[in-house]
Design brief:
By secondary structure, this protein is mostly helical. It has seven helices and no strands. Helix 2 runs antiparallel to helix 4 and helix 5 packs antiparallel against helix 7. The two termini are 28 Å apart.
């Protein structure tokens, strides 16, 4: 049973805020994952500078890409946001371990983690007409 608040249509402002936040998060994370999957020199240099092996770059990029795809699909967007938050938490831990500056390195994944959760919980599409989960019997 769904509550009346859940079925209420979202305001246009909240709808567009959800779309804009989600789009910005997706574009940044797609860029980040694709340069890792393609093993471009900046991705390899950044990963090895943080103390990880070059052989991990492709796997990290693929993992991030899978999380982004799950985030983009409406039915799995909450799950994708949770996975991305965990992935970004690993980035925070890595930057802390490497001794990087707080505001320019360590907190950037926190900002994106907050944005991905915010974008996932804000509506990104107009509410559909409510329907019953039970099958409808046909009249004979």
């Amino acid at each position: 049973m769904q509550s009346a608040a859940h079925n209420a249509p979202a305001s246009k402002t909240m709808l567009w805020a959800g779309r804009i936040i989600s789009t910005l998060v997706v574009l940044f994370l797609l860029f980040d994952s694709l340069i890792k999957v393609m093993k471009l020199p900046p991705a390899i240099e950044g990963t090895t500078r943080l103390g990880y092996s070059e052989s991990l770059v492709f796997g990290l990029g693929l993992l991030e890409l899978i999380c982004v795809v799950l985030y983009v699909i409406p039915r799995t967007s909450i799950f994708g946001a949770i996975l991305l938050t965990g992935y970004l938490g690993g980035a925070v831990a890595t930057n802390l371990r490497a001794g990087n500056p707080l505001f320019t390195y360590i907190l950037v994944p926190v900002y994106f983690g907050g944005a991905d959760l915010g974008g996932a919980f804000l509506p990104r599409q107009p509410a559909a007409r409510p329907h019953s989960a039970a099958p409808v019997a046909r009249a004979v």
